[in-house]
Design brief:
alpha+beta, Aminopeptidase, 8-stranded mixed sheet, 28% helix, 35% strand
């Protein structure tokens, strides 16, 4: 699945992670959590070990219904998407994803590339019929991107987030159907 492309004169690669990427993914995550309040996890709460990260990557690589994608710039991760299906039999046709792009690489189409790759993969996956995500109502750039890619608002969790400064934020659930139900039989 490796795919090279250039944005703003920078060579980037879209690919599935390798187990050896665990440390770099942890570094990426820590930097992300320190750079924005638009994610649920705070840097103090992020206690994932390299061994746990390696196991997460291995699990994804071995499960055809899970997906992790990274975008790298000379072996440095600048974007990440992870998708996991629901685990109960009655909702296993759905799955949730999260996507993040390092702040200094935002606005280059990296988020779009990650999500479009996920949707292409989901449409080819005979088990996945619906892809969804949760986004803070204050993350207007992300919401605009999701709508541009065809996602629709499905629901809203009022005051679901309480920022560290005490401000409350609604959490919006958005979805897209990747195939009509009849196509996945």
């Amino acid at each position: 699945m490796d795919f090279w492309f250039t944005r703003n004169g920078i060579d980037l690669m879209l690919r599935k992670p390798k187990v050896g990427d665990a440390e770099e993914i942890l570094t990426f995550a820590k930097a992300l959590f320190n750079s924005t309040d638009q994610v649920l996890t705070t840097s103090e709460e992020f206690t994932v070990t390299p061994e746990q990260e390696k196991q997460w990557i291995e699990d994804s690589l071995q499960n055809p219904d899970k997906l992790i994608l990274v975008i790298t710039n000379e072996e440095e991760i600048v974007g990440l998407l992870d998708f996991a299906p629901k685990t109960k039999r009655k909702n296993a046709h759905t799955g949730e994803f999260g996507v993040s792009v390092r702040y200094d690489f935002q606005g280059m189409g990296i988020g779009s590339m990650l999500i479009e790759s996920l949707l292409k993969w989901a449409k080819a996956n005979r088990h996945i019929e619906k892809v969804f995500l949760n986004v803070m109502a204050t993350n207007l750039r992300a919401i605009e991107l999701y709508k541009k890619l065809g996602f629709q608002e499905e629901g809203r969790h009022i005051r679901a987030i309480k920022q560290l400064n005490g401000d409350y934020v609604d959490l919006i659930q958005m979805y897209i159907l990747t195939a009509p139900a009849a196509d996945k039989i």
